[in-house]
Design a protein that fits this description.
The complex is a heterotrimer of chains A (about 350), B (about 350) and C (about 500).
Chain A (H helix, E strand, L loop, with lengths): L6 H29 L5 H26 L7 H18 L4 H26 L3 H20 L4 E2 L3 H8 L1 E2 L2 E2 H19 L1 H11 L1 H6 L4 H27 L1 E2 L7 H11 L11 H20 L6 H42 L3
Chain B lengths: L1 H6 L16 H20 L7 H26 L7 H17 L4 H26 L3 H20 L4 E2 L5 H6 L3 E5 L4 E5 H19 L1 H11 L1 H6 L4 H27 L1 E2 L7 H11 L11 H20 L6 H25 L1
Antiparallel strand pairs in B: 1-4, 2-3
Helix pairs in contact in B: 2-13, 3-8, 3-11, 3-12, 3-13, 4-5, 4-6, 4-11, 5-6, 5-11, 8-9, 12-13, 12-14, 13-14
Chain C lengths: L1 E10 L2 E11 L4 E5 L6 H8 L7 E6 L2 E3 L4 H7 L1 E4 L11 H5 L14 H15 L14 H13 L5 E5 L7 H16 L3 E5 L3 H7 L2 E6 L2 E7 L5 H9 L17 E10 L3 E9 L3 E6 L5 H8 L7 E6 L2 E3 L4 H6 L2 E4 L3 H4 L7 H5 L16 H15 L15 H13 L5 E5 L7 H16 L3 E5 L3 H7 L2 E6 L2 E7 L7 H8 L3
Parallel strand pairs in C: 3-8, 3-9, 6-7, 7-8, 13-18, 13-19, 16-17, 17-18
Antiparallel strand pairs in C: 1-2, 1-4, 4-5, 9-10, 11-12, 11-14, 14-15, 19-20
Helix pairs in contact in C: 4-5, 5-6, 14-15
The chains are: A mainly alpha (about 350), B mainly alpha (about 350), C alpha/beta (about 500).
């Protein structure tokens, strides 16, 4: 058998990307046409800021999902980072930079612990990160007694509320992180290994990939990104609260899945994830601006996730069918040739 | 030979031991529960072993127990149901709204059952027939069901003052058992929970239809080729889980005398933790209802312990996470030791 | 090139390699044979740095070596192509080949063009025609295997280890592979070739080393040794006749099928199975035999097919309906779709027949299943003789016996067995053959798919040869008179 057309294997992704962009634009312009206040600078800022922290977590989640794992602890890491950085500055009186550095190191350590336990215990990452999620959320609740922590300096608030060239700092962070991580994932040898791990761990190991090390690093990265998001969120809200970011892990996963990654591992791109994030942000915003009961938002984002996975399932079934058509054609051709 | 099977860490799988024989895991869980009980009794001899306290612990635990059984059932067929908590809320809200609108109790109950089964059926069909990962399907359903419940109630409590008294009393009914000087009031929810543990436990080990669930989870393809109706059983598992969830909703709605869209938030995590502690695995083919019961009991006792020892009750949630991590750690250790 | 001296290895208290000594020369293909569990895999894993030896020495290329990691072995010039492919379908051929050895641009990112060029160079060197930019997922398994070989030698390997490289290849692809191996031998590489298929060894290997139970039995020139000698050395005893006698009498038709098709895989297959006979399905891998049988029970959706069982036309909508009618298909992939690996022997035997062990209320009686399992353990000589042992701890041969027991417990009318002896040691193999013959004699229709031609000829009374999704020939084989050439002639297009 010679090489099958390459696009057969790639058009799943392409169709999903194009479809995603089209649906996003349709939603955007559809609501603009109906309500007329969507495509304003102020609204677009609201739109982006509503999803930017989940978006930053989704970047790390993309890496984790490509390796065939999942990290549902990000939301609690996010809230932990908020609380820690706030407590260090407000209650311990540390200066901003020290507080942020300590916070990021702490979140990185949590991620490393996730990775370490996953590698050590060899149980599904969902179980381990769920353990971390529950533990950390409990800690968040306990160390704040359910109250919020506030009283930040203006310099710190800039990280969440300030603008660089007219763009909010967290969005700048998200954009830069997406570009750097996207390039690395596409072209750097360390990150290319993720696809090999997701494609088949044992095989990757035999090919000399240090699977354990890569996994620990990836979970560390995921938690650190959540930590960065948490620090900026504390600045944006002007306060740290344990309930911030509740269920953010689900939105991050949804964004990655909508962006075309295979939850079983082995595929996914940063570009797709970014599209997924934008899509979720637009849908959310549509519900806010249209003044439809915003309670519908959960229903819609759940449906979107289901539609995204149904779509990719449908496309892969169609591709399987196309392969069969190709094979049948070859069979027919062969038997035709040798009939005489 | 006997000892070999009894010592295996996977005694939650049908390895051929009689039902009556306790696996070493369950034995260990019993010991841990007894130990916690003793420690708390010694530390707080007046408060902890009092019937009032134990009753509170046990009746609160009953809801988690039913949800955890539902989770165990889907885990056995290599599924997962993240929507249990949301469907609980949706069923509760449905019943409460109907009762408020003066529908008769059977109509309300049937409607609630219908809604729960519809969610379960959707989950089951998308997983079993369409072939989408259960994680994603039920994640979507989690969002959708909670969303609909919120939309229906706009987040408000739904009381139903006109419902017949027997329904509102039922969930809080206590069986009076004489103890010489007075009565022990045994909550009906606890009796129902324990009865269901025994019944489902027996059914899973002695009823062929339910035994087949294990084969589906252990290897779907092998089960299919062995003539087991895999699709039907997968759908059945999600329906069965939905049935338990509905039942929980009935008890909870009756006991609290309100329907509420925020019932069962985080219930899926506690259920998953209890089931995994009890011996279920995300890899499917394993799970034990009695083990799950012991897991739920352990989490409830630990939670109560925080209250008893005047600790910050907010640590309770963290304890669930830590218990989960310790449980999988112990498992990993046992598997490692077993291999030697 | 490689000198292995007195290497031993134990797993816990179990000695799997006991003072094995052997050597491989440059420009030589050295075959390594032995039953399952003889220690072949352990030995090559030690040479390849995946496992560490307990004692003994390994001298490679004139230096004593002690690899702690596969990468060190690779660095020294030892490349292992493992049985299961290690390629990622979503990445290109070139990226797969240069995993962990990527060529980089000045920025430290991957230099895709340089990698494509380098891959093309390697392909040219070994004479393979593959596009380095193709996604691996778009290649056939045979092509992927060649990519594996190319990847292995692209590290400037001096020693190439091939672990059962032909197990999933078609004859044509095997020829292609052998051409490449011959080429590499001429270029002076040392090659270790592990295989179960003895005929291949005689085709390709210069010398052969036989292992048994972790011991070295012998090393010999291939030209100076016969197939029977090898088998004797592997099992340590002479096997009287390798195959049971052919059918004593052939009766009426048990099962027949017409117009069996699956879109893209099987077209218009028709056949009868008679009482007392074993029907063999021969053909190249990918000719549609497995696909046809899976379509028969509708495990894969068929596009057409009519079936008659004992004279009556029947419908088969899904595998469970086939089972209910006594039609059993046993998969070639016993670990993935045959057995429930972490369950006990008894649970596996009863998997298709749970209802047999339940009373009329549906209450399951485990003791009945255990009793029945013990009968099968005795009959099939399953070791260890423990119905509560977990199947994953059994050897391949014993697992296969459990699989047959599961089928027999159904009291089948038609048994379709896909690769009944793949990855099974010689002793278990003849027992399985004997049981299949007994089954046929008792009036059950038996269909065997086998890619091992001697097995098809030795076992079956009639052979259907598959080609291009259909049946190309029906060969009567009442006395084992069909020649391998006759099968091959009908299996390929000329």
């Amino acid at each position: 058998m010679k090489v099958l057309p390459r696009q057969l294997f790639q058009n799943v992704i392409v169709v999903q990307y194009v479809g995603l962009v089209v649906v996003t634009l349709l939603t955007l312009f559809g609501f603009q046409a109906t309500f007329g206040n969507v495509l304003t600078g102020a609204n677009l800022e609201v739109l982006a800021m509503n999803m930017v922290f989940e978006g930053i977590m989704a970047l790390g989640m993309t890496f984790v999902i490509i390796t065939g794992g999942i990290d549902i602890s990000v939301a609690s890491v996010f809230a932990f980072a908020e609380i820690l950085v706030a407590k260090l500055m407000v209650q311990a009186g540390l200066d901003m930079v020290t507080a942020i550095v300590i916070t990021l190191v702490a979140t990185a350590a949590i991620g490393a612990l996730n990775g370490l336990l996953i590698v050590l215990f060899r149980v599904h990452p969902m179980i381990i990160t769920m353990g971390t999620l529950l533990t950390l959320r409990g800690i968040n609740l306990a160390i704040t007694d359910g109250h919020s922590v506030s009283g930040f300096s203006d310099v710190f608030l800039f990280l969440g509320q300030g603008k660089i060239l007219g763009v909010n700092v967290p969005i700048v962070f998200f954009g830069i992180a997406a570009i750097i991580l996207g390039i690395l994932l596409g072209h750097h040898r360390f990150f290319r290994q993720l696809y090999f791990i997701g494609g088949g761990e044992r095989a990757a190991r035999l090919s000399g990939v240090d699977v354990n090390r890569v996994k620990i690093i990836i979970y560390t990265l995921s938690a650190t990104l959540a930590g960065c998001a948490g620090v900026m969120a504390a600045a944006k809200y002007g306060a740290a609260h344990w309930a911030h970011g509740n269920l953010a892990e689900l939105k991050a996963i949804a964004a990655v899945a909508i962006g075309g990654a295979n939850i079983n591992g082995g595929s996914g791109t940063i570009g797709g994830t970014v599209l997924g994030v934008i899509f979720l942000a637009v849908v959310h915003n549509a519900f806010v601006t249209s003044a439809v009961n915003t309670f519908w938002y959960d229903v819609v984002s759940g449906m979107m996730l289901l539609i995204a996975v149904l779509l990719s399932r449908f496309i892969s079934l169609r591709n399987a069918r196309a392969l069969l058509v190709l094979k049948q054609g070859k069979m027919d051709q062969l038997s035709e040739t040798y009939k005489s | 030979m006997m000892t070999h099977a009894a010592n295996s860490p996977d005694a939650t799988k049908p390895t051929g031991r009689r039902f009556a024989a306790l696996s070493s895991r369950q034995f260990l869980l019993v010991l841990i529960n007894v130990a916690i009980f003793l420690v708390l009794t010694i530390l707080r001899p007046d408060a902890f072993p009092s019937w009032t306290n134990l009753k509170a612990v046990l009746s609160l635990m009953s809801y988690d127990l039913l949800i955890a059984i539902a989770m165990t059932i889907v885990l056995i067929v290599r599924g997962i149901d993240l929507s249990v908590g949301s469907v609980l809320a949706l069923a509760s809200v449905t019943m409460a709204l109907l009762l408020r609108a003066d529908a008769s109790v059977p109509v309300a109950l049937l409607a609630g059952l219908g809604v729960a089964l519809l969610c379960g059926l959707t989950n089951g069909l998308l997983v079993g027939v369409v072939g989408i990962l259960p994680f994603l399907v039920t994640l979507g359903m989690m969002s959708v069901a909670r969303g609909i419940a919120t939309v229906l109630t706009t987040g408000q409590y739904i009381s139903f003052p006109n419902a017949p008294a027997w329904f509102t009393l039922f969930g809080r009914y206590e069986l009076q058992i004489p103890n010489g000087s007075g009565f022990y009031g045994v909550p009906v929810t606890l009796i129902i929970g324990l009865t269901l543990v025994v019944v489902t436990s027996l059914l899973f080990s002695r009823w062929t239809a339910l035994r087949s669930f294990f084969f589906v989870g252990e290897s779907t393809e092998a089960a299919r080729l062995s003539g087991i109706k895999v699709t039907r059983l997968t759908v059945a598992a999600y329906l069965l889980a939905a049935l338990f969830v509905w039942f929980t909703a009935v008890l909870l709605t009756s006991a609290n005398k309100i329907g509420y869209a925020n019932y069962g938030i985080g219930a899926e995590m506690r259920a998953l933790a209890a089931a995994v502690v009890g011996g279920a695995s995300l890899a499917g083919g394993a799970g034990n209802i009695f083990g799950t019961f012991l897991g739920v009991l352990m989490l409830a006792l630990i939670g109560n312990g925080f209250v008893m020892l005047n600790g910050n009750p907010n640590w309770q949630q963290a304890s669930v996470g830590i218990v989960l991590l310790v449980a999988v750690g112990v498992d990993a250790l046992r598997t490692y030791r077993d291999r030697r | 090139m490689l000198q292995v001296t007195a290497v031993s290895k134990s797993f816990f208290s179990n000695k799997v390699l006991d003072a094995v000594t052997f050597d491989v020369r440059a420009g030589e293909v050295h075959a390594l044979v032995g039953e399952n569990g003889a220690g072949k895999s352990t030995l090559i894993n030690i040479i390849g740095g995946i496992l560490q030896r307990d004692s003994g020495t390994i001298v490679f290329d004139g230096k004593e070596v002690d690899f702690g990691h596969p990468l060190q072995a690779m660095g020294a010039g030892i490349s292992v192509v493992h049985q299961e492919l290690s390629l990622v379908p979503n990445a290109t051929v070139a990226e797969n080949m240069f995993l962990r050895r990527e060529k980089r641009t000045a920025l430290g990112l991957n230099d895709w063009r340089a990698m494509t060029r380098a891959a093309a160079d390697v392909f040219e060197r070994v004479g393979i025609d593959i596009d380095p930019n193709a996604l691996v997922g778009s290649l056939s398994v045979g092509m992927q295997q060649l990519v594996e070989v190319a990847k292995a030698i692209s590290i400037d390997a001096k020693l190439l280890i091939l672990d059962e490289p032909t197990s999933s290849l078609s004859e044509k692809e095997i020829d292609e592979l052998f051409k490449v191996i011959n080429d590499l031998r001429r270029q002076g590489l040392a090659i270790i070739f592990v295989s179960h298929k003895l005929s291949e060894l005689f085709k390709i290997a210069d010398r052969v080393t036989v292992l048994r139970d972790g011991h070295l039995v012998a090393t010999a020139e291939t030209s100076a040794i016969k197939s029977e000698d090898l088998i004797r050395m592997m099992v340590g005893r002479q096997l009287g006749t390798l195959y049971p006698p052919h059918a004593s009498a052939i009766g009426d038709v048990v099962f027949s099928c017409k117009e069996l098709s699956r879109f893209g895989a099987v077209s218009d297959v028709a056949f009868d199975v008679r009482r007392g006979e074993i029907l063999g399905l021969a053909g190249l891998v990918g000719a549609g035999r497995t696909e046809a049988m899976r379509a028969l029970i509708n495990a894969d959706e068929r596009s057409s097919g009519r079936f008659w069982l004992e004279g009556d036309e029947i419908q088969i909508h899904d595998p469970s309906e086939a089972l209910a009618r006594g039609i059993v298909y046993l998969s070639e992939d016993r670990k993935g779709s045959g057995l429930f690996l972490s369950y006990s022997v008894a649970e596996n035997i009863g998997a298709s027949t749970l209802d047999h062990y339940a009373d009329r209320f549906g209450v399951f009686h485990f003791s009945a299943l255990r009793k029945r399992s013990r009968e099968f353990i005795a009959k099939m000589d399953i070791r260890p003789p423990d119905e509560t042992a977990r199947v994953m701890n059994l050897s391949g041969g014993n697992q296969q016996k459990v699989l047959i027991s599961k089928a027999l417990d159904v009291n089948p009318k038609l048994l379709i067995f896909d690769e009944p002896t793949r990855g099974v040691d010689v002793g278990a193999k003849s027992l399985i053959h004997a049981r299949l013959r007994e089954l046929a004699e008792s009036g059950v229709g038996v269909v065997v798919i086998s890619s091992e031609m001697p097995e098809v000829i030795g076992l079956s009374d009639r052979i259907l040869v598959f080609r291009n999704g259909g049946v190309s020939a029906e060969l009567m084989n009442r006395k084992g008179e069909v020649s391998q050439e006759a099968i091959i002639n009908n299996a390929v297009y000329h």
